[in-house]
Amino acid sequence: MSELINNSEKRKEMLKHMILELHSGQAPEQVKKRLAELLKNIPYDEVVEVEQELISEGLPVEEVLKLCDFHTQVSSSR
């Protein structure tokens, strides 16, 4: 995942993909592990951008709020 560290678009694309995987119910524990790793390497403003994109694409706000809670957990465990 180190190749993603300096590429904003790739990080955001990966984050969006993982969020959609979680939303569709795919192996939540595995996705959460990968998501936790990614969130350690992605600036908060990029997370917000992805959240806004997902909301504008029709993902329920409640689902996005779950991501916010998860991001807070990951951030506080650093």
TrEMBL record:
InterPro entries on file: DUF438 (IPR007380)
A UniProt-annotated Pfam family: DUF438
Domain DUF438 as annotated: residue spans: 15-74
Domain of life: Bacteria
GO CC entries: plasma membrane
PANTHER family: BLL2471 PROTEIN-RELATED, DUF438 DOMAIN-CONTAINING PROTEIN
Protein name in UniProt: DUF438 domain-containing protein
Organism annotation: Alkalitalea saponilacus
